[in-house]
Design a protein that fits this description.
Elements: E1 5-12, E2 15-21, H1 23-28, E3 34-38, E4 46-49, E5 52-54, E6 59-65, H2 69-74, E7 85-90, E8 102-108, H3 112-124, E9 128-135, H4 144-148, E10 153-158, E11 165-166, H5 169-178, E12 185-189, H6 192-202, E13 209-212, E14 228-231, E15 234-237, H7 238-241, E16 244-246, H8 252-259, H9 263-284
Parallel strand pairs: 8-9, 8-12, 9-10, 10-11, 12-13
Antiparallel strand pairs: 1-2, 2-6, 3-4, 3-7, 5-6, 13-16, 14-15
């Protein structure tokens, strides 16, 4: 089958990093692109961004946060296990300036897994990179060391002030703007509401801002239509025409409504899986004599 897991480690509670042997994607993947995986025969297809790739080792790195049944099943895999299906690279890569630009990469939560390859590609092209990494708490902050090793400057924010600067990523971004820091472009990935307010922060200053809309993707081929977004008054499909778009013309309010469409079905699938596991555990317990 292939797609063997060679590294599996916990980055934060319910968030796992996997390094997987899949040479053809490791050779061709670019920053911003993603893969579609299916964990098992009866599992659903889900998109995950290529967080890192090593062409020499023939591996790619994926980061998965447990939010539903499929990511729960994925995060239970270990070194030596194999993923049933893994297709990619998919989507359009991040548009990387040729060099000499100052780019601010803003990541929130699991979005830091997308910032990592973007920072690497930007630096390899000769750009200056400032990374703003946000999380609700220090415990949930991921990939700080990996990004710090690449970026020219890293600013960490936590909602509760348990680490770095207390506040939102938008506060740190506004401070850079107010300090007259040269910013040629902002690239942002994280919760949709975060991306919305990053764009509201940069728009008055005319700072070009790319956002990654991979949180809405489902099938990854454009066939299901679940990832329809309105960009500049036109309907776009995030998985085949993105996942990155000009954030200043994205209809974020519509996007946030669409994100909630499948929540009842997702909850039902997870509840059923938990119930089945509990029933199996109960049957395994020998009856008291």
């Amino acid at each position: 089958m292939g797609n063997k897991i060679v590294t599996a480690r916990e980055l934060a509670p319910k968030t796992m990093l996997f390094e997987i042997e899949v040479a053809h994607i490791a050779e061709r993947g670019q920053a911003g692109q993603f893969v579609i995986i299916r964990v098992s025969e009866h599992g659903e297809r889900i998109p995950l961004t290529i967080a890192h790739r090593d062409a020499e080792r023939g591996t790619i790195t994926l980061v998965a946060q447990e939010v539903g049944k499929t990511t729960r099943d994925l995060n239970r895999l270990a070194v030596g296990d194999e993923i049933l299906d893994l297709a990619g690279p998919l989507g359009l890569p991040t548009e990387i300036p040729a060099g000499g630009k100052t780019v601010v990469c803003v990541g929130g939560g699991i979005g830091n897994a997308v910032v990592w390859p973007q920072v690497q590609a930007l630096k390899e092209s000769g750009n200056k990179v400032i990374a703003i990494l946000g999380a609700r708490t220090q415990e949930l902050l991921i990939l700080e060391d990996e990004i710090t090793a690449l970026a020219d400057r890293v600013i960490v924010t936590t909602d509760d002030g348990s680490y770095g600067r207390k506040g939102m990523v938008t506060h740190a971004l506004q401070d850079l703007i107010d300090a007259d820091e040269r910013i040629d472009e902002v690239i942002c990935i994280g919760p949709v509401v975060m991306m919305k307010f990053v764009c509201k922060t940069t728009e008055p200053y005319g700072i070009p801002t790319q956002v990654s809309l991979n949180p809405i993707m489902v099938d990854g081929t454009g066939m299901c239509g679940a990832c329809r977004v309105t960009v500049g008054g036109e309907t776009k499909f995030a998985c085949v025409e993105g996942p990155e778009f000009d954030g200043h013309v994205v209809d974020f309010d519509e996007l946030m409504k669409r994100l909630s469409y499948y929540q009842p079905e997702e909850k039902l699938a997870l509840d059923r899986a938990c119930q089945c596991e509990q029933q199996a555990a109960d049957r395994a317990v020998p009856e008291a004599s």
